[in-house]
Design brief:
Blueprint (H helix, E strand, L loop, with lengths): L14 H13 L7 E3 L1 H7 L4 E3 L10 H11 L2 H4 L3 E4 L3 H13 L3 E6 L3 H10 L5 E6 L1
Parallel strand pairs: 3-4, 4-5
Antiparallel strand pairs: 1-2
Helix pairs in contact: 1-3, 3-5
Length: 136
C-alpha cells in the first residue's frame, strides 16, 4: 500500500456507514433508479419479485454507484493521485464516470483486445479525465 492510501473499511457495517455512503451519492448527484414489479413474474414464480433497475444508471450498471461512493470517500490529498482501475467493462466505466464527476484523473488498465471497446465506452460518456493503458 502507498503511504497516501488508507482503508476506510470498518466492520461490521453499521447504519451510520450506509447513511454516509448515501450522503456521498447525493453529493455526487447519482441518479436514483426505480424498483419495479411484474405481476407476470410474481405469478410465474409464486414469489413477490422486485427488480432494482440499475441498468438505467448513468453507465448502465450498479458499478457506478459503488465507484462513486469510493471516489467521493477519498480525501483531497488521496484523490489528487487519481483513480486506477483494471477493467474492460462496467467497473472501468463506473470508475471513469465517478472520477470525472469529481474532477479526478482516472487510469484504466485493460487488455489490448478490449482497447477499442473501452475507448468507445468512455467517449460515449464524454469522460475527459480518463487515460486508458493496455497490455497484451
Amino acid at each position: 500500500m502507498h503511504r497516501w492510501f488508507t482503508s476506510r473499511a470498518t466492520l461490521p457495517v453499521e447504519l451510520v456507514h450506509v447513511q454516509e455512503a448515501a450522503a456521498r451519492l447525493r453529493k455526487a448527484m447519482v441518479p436514483r433508479t426505480p424498483v419495479l414489479r411484474s405481476a407476470w413474474v410474481d405469478a410465474a414464480t409464486n414469489v413477490a419479485v422486485h427488480f432494482k433497475c440499475e441498468h438505467m444508471q448513468v453507465t448502465g450498471s450498479f458499478k457506478y454507484r459503488g465507484a462513486t461512493n469510493a471516489v467521493f470517500s477519498l480525501d483531497n490529498a488521496a484523490a489528487r493521485h487519481g483513480i486506477v482501475a483494471h477493467s474492460s467493462g462496467n467497473h472501468g466505466a463506473g470508475c471513469a464516470a465517478a472520477a470525472a464527476a469529481r474532477g479526478v484523473q482516472t487510469f484504466i488498465y485493460t487488455s489490448v483486445h478490449i482497447h477499442i471497446y473501452i475507448h468507445v465506452y468512455v467517449n460515449i460518456f464524454m469522460i475527459i479525465y480518463t487515460t486508458i493503458h493496455t497490455y497484451i
